[in-house]
Design brief:
Enoyl-CoA hydratase-related protein; 268 residues; 14 helices; lyase; four-stranded mixed β-sheet; Enoyl-CoA_hyd/isom_CS; six-stranded mixed β-sheet; 51% helix; Enoyl-CoA_hydra/iso; 10 strands; Enoyl-CoA_hydra_C
Length: 268
Amino acid sequence: MSPDPSDVLTVEVAGGTALVTVNRPEVRNAINATVLQALTRTLEELAADEDVQVLIFTGAGDKAFVAGADINELAVRTPRDGLKATMQGVYEQVEQFPKPTIAAVNGYAFGGGHELALACDIRVASTNAQFALPETGLGIMPAAGGTQRLAKLVGLGRATEIILTGRRVKADDALAMGLVTDVVEPGELLDTARETANAIMSKGPLAIQLAKTVVRHGFDVDHQTGILLERLAQSVLYSSAEKTEGTNAFLEKRSPDFRGAAQKDVNK
């Protein structure tokens, strides 16, 4: 009997944040078909949940975030599986998720685990985190977005070296090269991720969604197209109740009620 997807992925929603935990600590949270199925379903549900404003991804236990793909499944994959690219598709879903995503990386983030973190908007790491793309040592290559996203984050030369050698990158080095934005003690990791989520949720939700969209899509186009995306998104925000609430709150020296303003925009 196949494992229940709810057993390999847990979701806790509180205060506008959904904590999504890969729950296979006995195999260092390795990604298999069941985890991917659960991720797809969970992302669809959380995208539709108006109470969820930010997602945090992490791994169960203190050994690994996600230590890569399940090698037992990998060993029997065929060229057809490569073309189907299931993991790549799920991580595209993560990257295109309409709400901000944060990877809280504890321990090993190897292979598919590293690529999951790369698909998130923001990455924070514990001091014991290690990142690697070791696929070439198995006679394959990173193919869930790793070859593309890593180069955009750390530069072409450094990404090429990391991918070709498969070397492990420790947390401090990951911070220095811009792979993560913060490194904290393991016991502070989730608190730090939640603090980041709270900082995001204090801002205008429509502004956050459009800013994420423009940054993501503007990165892959020429400068003039990116500037045009920026201009169009700003024009939408200028017409929003959210902008009115934000500017009025600033002038009146009070905290803005962006949730109430967002509802006004919905009811227009």
